[in-house]
Amino acid sequence: MATVTFNVPTELITKLTDGRTAVGQFLIDVLYLKTEAICDQLVAFHDGDGGSPEVKEFNVLPEEVIYDPETHKGKVTFRYRVRFFFGCSDINSDEPANEKADFEVDLINNKLAVHIHDPIRRDTVDEF
């Protein structure tokens, strides 16, 4: 599992805790400041799929954000497109993807940590 940590401006934390902004908008405000960090982890998620994966942008689905204000933890869904390039065969592929990630807001240190899970991969050794 990869964890990406963001420094959050105090005013955004205050808006979240005061209820002046929804958690979905809070995530958009923070994550879109450094899209490259999330895109890099989404690319890493697809490294084992063959080819050379590329993710240039993502969207947060605010209506699908789950958040517990008591524990300050939740789940976020990323919607994005993965572009694959298979060099030997000179083939390009472009596929939609959605991934859920856990997140937690550290109100004391003004941080947001997003945990992007590793893909589930089967190994033939597990079959015996």
Summarize the structure.
The chain is of the alpha+beta class and 128 residues long. It has helices at residues 10-18, 23-31, 35-45, and strands at residues 2-7, 52-54, 58-60, 66-68, 73-86, 91-106, 111-116.
Task: Record the SSE blueprint.
Blueprint: E1 2-7, H1 10-18, H2 23-31, H3 35-45, E2 52-54, E3 58-60, E4 66-68, E5 73-86, E6 91-106, E7 111-116
Antiparallel strand pairs: 1-7, 2-5, 3-5, 4-5, 5-6, 6-7
Helix pairs in contact: 1-2
Write a structural description.
There is one protein chain. The radius of gyration is 17 Å and the shape is elongated. Strand 4 and strand 5 form a beta hairpin. With 128 residues, the protein is of the alpha+beta class. The chain has one domain. Helix 1 (10-18) packs antiparallel against helix 2. It has helices spanning 10-18, 23-31, 35-45; strands at 2-7, 52-54, 58-60, 66-68, 73-86, 91-106, 111-116. It contains 3 helices and 7 strands.
